[in-house]
Amino acid sequence: MRKGGSILVLNTEKDFEVLKVLGSDLRIRILGLLNGKKLNVNEIAKALNIPQSTAAVNIKALEKAGLVKVENKKGKKGSQKLCSAQYSEIVIAFPSRAPEDREDDVIEVEMPVGLYTKFEVSPPCGLCSPEKIIGFLDAPDSFWSPERVKAGLLWFEKGFVEYKFPNNALYKREPLKRIEVSMELSSEVPGTNKNWPSDITLWINEVEIGTWTSPGDFGDRRGRFTPLWWKLEGSQYGLLKTWIVTDEGSFVDGERVSDVTLKDLKIYDHSSIKIRVGVKEDARNVGGINIFGRGFGNYDQDIVLRLCF
């Protein structure tokens, strides 16, 4: 269970008891009724047209699960118990699965989205930190701004950004079994459009791993971590995608995308691991790319590289 402001993130493997409490239409209705307001049990029962005893029992279950707060408040005719929702949004997170069981020996490095070492981008393009726009919009040269290291969101129509990760595999005695690259992505269109496909490709050590087609540029609601100053007409969040390379091939979220294997990447021939992501000029769907990092989108992470032994 992870809390973020008024947002509660439930893990399907760890928070099963809370999920069971939420498995009731009436309790969901109670939480919706209490969102942004405080009501006593009588008011809840009246609003939902249910017996007071039924409202009390379900409030107690929600309180025990930590979803509702009950506090005593003095009134004209004694005290009353006021109920309020602890969270304005509850998210259910399904842990990502690799094609095989995950090993315990994992080295993870998280790279800020603005800490790329090479880029080629075309407008519309830009980048911003959680506080402000960096440089000028639709000006590729702004991608060289020193403030790019603070970026929490960057976007462009076609091209790529490339990152150099430390090659920690060189210091392990165990053989490398799997590489994972995870990031939050969406298409890019002026404004937003949920039906705007874009073919987003990943390369490792200049070897093309595979392509995932983003369905659109999402702006139907504000991203959970997107700052309030960022206009609602702009890209709000993406989808968390994970590329995985093993001895058997390459996958995106468990679906095979190519026959590239660990051997093809020649990991032990390089002092660093180069990760490139972008939209090819000759892609079938040139629909741009948004890369969401910390401070934007629905996931509080930058670009994550995992080496599994």
From TrEMBL:
Gene3D superfamilies cross-referenced by the UniProt entry: Winged helix-like DNA-binding domain superfamily/Winged helix DNA-binding domain (1.10.10.10)
Name of this protein: ArsR family transcriptional regulator
Keyword Cell cycle included in the entry's annotation: no
Domain HTH arsR-type, chain residue ranges per copy: 7-102
Domain of life: Bacteria
Keywords: DNA-binding, Transcription, Transcription regulation
InterPro entries, per the entry: ArsR-like_HTH, HTH_ArsR_DNA-bd_dom, HTH_MetalResp_TranReg, UCP030050_HTH, WH-like_DNA-bd_sf, WH_DNA-bd_sf
Pfam families: HTH_20
GO MF, one example: DNA-binding transcription factor activity
PROSITE patterns for the chain: HTH_ARSR_2
Key word Ribonucleoprotein present: no
